[in-house]
Amino acid sequence: MTEQPAPAASAPEDGSEDSATMHIGELAERTGLSLRSLRHWDEVGLVQASGGRTEGGFRLYTAADERRIRLIMSMKAFGFTLEELAELTTAIESSPTDPLAALPADRATFYATEMRRRRDKLAAQLQDADALLTRVSPAPPS
Asked: Is-above-0.90 flag for pTM?
């Protein structure tokens, strides 16, 4: 069964943004992820539709789900597996001020080391990209 566009998200009853729900299509548009990715992330438990489902079976997402997705998207550049993304996301959500403290020592060391190493690699790739862009871009007019 394919999910079709549905009516607009329900309005918050208590004035809280977190109590509002949105359909998968709206969430896809807001985050830039495909419907397929969102469905897959739901199926593997990375981001589940915490707003439940409509009577017609459509997934309902909340603002908290969107925040989780944006957090995961910010970590994707590090190249972690879905399982690692889930573990790290849960740690960050559990302890926002000291996320690695929420993990066993060996996992905390792994993430701290790997994130630094992978960040340095990304920085080097960005420098290479900047150098190439400078090389191929025409000089601005004087």
From this structure: no
